[in-house]
Amino acid sequence: MWSALAGADGGVLLRSERVRVIAPSPYHALRAIVLDATSEPELTVRETVDAVLPHNKVGRRVIEDAGGRLDFAPHGFEERFRFPVMARDPGPVAVDPRPRSEASTVAAAVTEPEGLAVAERIMFAVFPPARVDPMMRGRIQPPRVLGIEGWCVWLTHRSGVPAGAAFTYHDGQSVGVYQVATLPEHRGNGVARATMAAVLDRYHDVPITLTATDYGRPLYERLGFRIVDAAVWWIPRIHADPNG
Asked: What is the pTM of this model?
């Protein structure tokens, strides 16, 4: 997903079988995504560390290990987040009938820049990027994502008012779901369920994965997701030796 976003700008710093490193921007961290943590784990760790730590003038640097199998602590990093990774196999969608109070909650894919901007504001409000100016809008979900194959942004209205959002990326084999966000004043009214129902309706025939918060996990379990792994995000320790 990050490679697709960076590719249009030539923002991939390292592309190997083990790790991919995406260049930073004023809106996104320098991000290393571990692709293969099992074949040669020591080489993967060294390659990742060598690609990330030297950029010590970059404000935000993150290593994403989707399986949580590698230990970057001895190399100047500390664990920042740990999320359960959940997956859903292809198959029919069994969504509980919505209460009448949720009948006016509708989710749809965004097709125009105006709707994209609204969805971005919701995701920004619920998942604010660290150390990013709140006025920096239009680049977390830049207009060009509307033209990236497999990328889809979702906007959910409740009684005609924008209430929730999310985005998905289909890489040709499976779909990742990201930043399922509901504004605080609309929580408890089926907004996230409507968003996920729309996603599952479109992609019911392919595997779907996501990382869950404690708040969202019960909903995902009801929709047929199960925990398959734990994703760990690492960041450099403040006083880490740049050589590891």
From this structure: 0.82
